[in-house]
Amino acid sequence: MKKILFVGAEAMPFAATGGLGDVLGSLPAAIRKKGGKDVDVRVVLPLYGAMGKTWRDQLEQVAEFRVNLAWRNQYCGVKSLVKDGVTFYFIDNDYYFNRPSLYGNFDDGERYAYFCKAALEMMPQIDWYPDVLHAHDWQAALSVVYLNTRYRNLPAYEHMKSVFTIHNIEYQGKYDMSILSDVFELGVEHTSLMRYDDCLNLMKAAIVCADTVTTVSPRYAEEIKTAEYAHRLNFVLEQNSYKLRGILNGIDYDYYNPAKDTGLVSTFDARRLSGKAKDKEAMQAEACLPLRADVPVLAVISRLAAHKGLDLISEIADKLVAENDVQLIVLGKGEERFERFFADLAARYPDKVAALLTYDRDLAKRIYAATDIFLMPSKSEPCGLSQMIASRYGAVPVVRETGGLYDSIKPYWEKDGEMLGNGFTFAGYSGAELHERTCAAIDLYKQTAKWKKLVAKVMRTDFSWSASAAKYLEMYDELK
Ligand code: GLC
Q1: DSSP states of 291-322 as a string?
Q2: Which residues line ligand 1 (CB under 6 A)?
């Protein structure tokens, strides 16, 4: 039996702020389902103060010990629960993790160094050693580094393999070289491993140490070898390209399922779209927009940040709503300039625009269900899950051809009476191209029969974890 341990900073439904949490919350169960009795997948993450009582009440204490980190000596509890056949371990230390937010603390470097060390120290305590340590993003990078630099000489860790997955290369975990030994407990002999651009760079070190490096789409695996996308790590990825591969994310098909979603006014599927019309009407009422079945509802559901393409959307939004009979719903929080822009746009077009400047997962699902055209023109997108969720709920995506958006959405066109593609796409990072493709989608919406056919096709595109879980299993098998 193959034993895999996922190490990461967040997982749905316990504690999550973004896509990483979605993936760590659903991929392990998908791998377990695909691999059956041949695979034992477990996950370790911090026990955050933010974790809800329902889950907290189900935790069982499985170990208690102390972790040394340089001159520090800290308490470490390990609690666990089993969900969908996957054992989740939670590293319990109130001082580091019982804080109002998951990240953004001055001592994040120290918090995740402690977490990574605890993940390795936990193994003898629970008497379970994985064959593969699979670490995700910079917060887990040190688990791979510590394995190579500090644990390899111990027999139980000698043959352990490691995988490091990059969910977003923008966040690398960069620190001043002066804290190498005081915080990260690494001696001067590791200076060249840890250093990049005169900084201590945790992601770079994990890329160098890991047996295999993956990222969350094949296209992004190519992009991060170039200066345009790599946030300066392109040289490291080029040098290590022999062990780099991209595996496209999936989404949780049980959690995102319009045919069974109890949060919707009406459920629906690709064969029965009448329910979607009811959800649209209900959302128009909820967002205080006119109840009109004939206008397309456009939506943006995103962190309001420039790299998600919000600068392009704000560049064209005025013209788009002024010149077309459409409604636009924006859901998300983020940069103040965008929040102000959409609040102002909604004030100027109260019959056309609703700006919901918040984040709420249930509300997001109701909006996906109500949406006809989903806008996601990201500047870069390692994978992106929203275009997949939108597709599942029958909202046709308009995306820029980058990263996972390129891999998951192919351009709609018709050839010899056959409908190809599953969305609208454009290549250049330009407002004009986004505007042109969005208008093309609006035009097609008016051709009802064709539109319905496209919606059904989009809904049937397979974005479940099934194919990708098989690819992960294959990769683990190759790591002999
Ligand atoms: C990050 C990326 C996003 C990806 C997610 C899960 O949030 O920005 O594109 O879908 O991780 O891998």
Answers
A1: --SSSPEEEEES-B-GGGTHHHHHHHHHHHHH
A2: 18-20, 23, 167-168, 216, 249, 381-385, 404
